[in-house]
Amino acid sequence: MEENIVIDHYLDLCGFDCPVNFVKCCLALENTSSSETLKVDLDIGEAEESVLEGLTQKGYKVKIIYKDSEKVTMIISSV
User: What residues contact 50, with CB distance under 8 A and at least 6 apart?
Assistant: First the structure.
């Protein structure tokens, strides 16, 4: 059974260099309530790792919902 995820905010950060990806995610999350979710598209590699590790360390729940050879899509929410 698939989980229905409500997306409240979306960022397309493909093509941005690190640490811009992480900073933009943090700024977007500062403007969301604890019940809202943020969907983010990122390039594979350093951007993905930076955002995943950084936001997890800050206490956010990060779930990868799509990944291919070029990009990854994450859903980020408060724990």
Answer: 18, 19, 21, 22
